[in-house]
Input
Amino acid sequence: MDRTFLTPERRRRLRPAVDVAALERLLAAVPVEAHAGIVLACLAAVTPADLREAGLDGNDQVPAAAVRSGSPGGLSFVPVAHTDFIVQFDDPHLASLWAAVEPIRC
Output
């Protein structure tokens, strides 16, 4: 039986061009710790709760300063009205799995 990594709620929130089966294949190939960041890059709209789940400090209001991860050496970013989360893989196999998730954006 295939393992499903995305909840029905998460599936509903993905951008329309995201190939859910391809995203599931990618999630199956990477460590679970990477899932939240990968899913962030595929969501139609990112909420503060999504940011917190990915280990970023997501406030309900957009701060003027950089948002810093709660973990040492974690991610930082400055939220703007529209933020794209970009995922890149050095491994050619993972890069090909990622390219299949939303070919129109690659």
Remarks:
- Residues 20-29 form the longest helix (10 residues).
- The mean pLDDT is 78.
- The beta strands are 67-68, 76-77.
- The first strand starts at residue 67 and ends at 68.
